[in-house]
Amino acid sequence: MLDHTDVQILEELSKNSRITMKELGEKVHLTGQAAASRVAKLEDNGVIEGYTIKVNQVKLGCYIHALLNIYTKSTHHQPYLSFIKTQEKFVINNYKISGDGCYLLECRFPSNEMLDQFLVVLNKHVNYKLSIVINK
């Protein structure tokens, strides 16, 4: 069970995972060594699974943020899943979901033309409903 300090540590690391242990300790009222020990324990217990970066997709030239509800044409999903694996440059997340649709696909595209090309091939495997993100 996490205590208040562990929760604070997670919040601070979520804001900046590159923070020094000394700075982290100051923010959660511990020494740097005590903060490092707490972080190591959170890692060992699997609470912290890894560290990552947040990439600005627009600065990479991917201006179109699309969400697609995916409706498979049969119970055999492998053709769709195989296609998605070949589209790593566009696909951010592919969630298997309950409710409306079988999957929720999150993608980024540099242009409407690239989105259209993707959709033409996607439609060979599944049906979809497209939504474009206007603002975050």
Overview of this protein structure:
With 136 residues, this protein is α+β, with helices and mostly antiparallel strands. The protein folds into two domains: 4-44, Orthogonal Bundle (Arc Repressor Mutant, subunit A), CATH 1.10.10.10; 64-132, Alpha-Beta Plaits (2-Layer Sandwich), CATH 3.30.70. The chain is 38% helix and 21% strand. Strands 2-3-1-4 form a four-stranded antiparallel β-sheet. Helix 1 crosses helix 2 and helix 2 (21-28) packs across helix 3 (32-44). The longest helix is centred in the first third of the chain and has 13 residues, at 32-44. It starts with a helix and ends with a strand.
**Helix and strand string, N-terminal first?**
HHHEHEEHE
* Count of individual beta strands: 4
Structural class: alpha+beta
Q: Report the average pLDDT across residues.
A: 95
Low-confidence stretches: none
Give me the oligomer status.
single chain
User: Any idea what the CATH architecture of the largest domain is?
Assistant: 2-Layer Sandwich
**CATH fold type of the largest domain:** Alpha-Beta Plaits
Please indicate the count of domains: 2
The CATH first-level class of the largest domain comes to Alpha Beta
Task: Measure the end-to-end span.
Answer: 33 Å
Describe the secondary-structure layout.
Elements: H1 4-15, H2 21-28, H3 32-44, E1 64-72, H4 78-85, E2 91-96, E3 103-109, H5 112-122, E4 126-132
Antiparallel strand pairs: 1-3, 1-4, 2-3
Helix pairs in contact: 1-2, 2-3
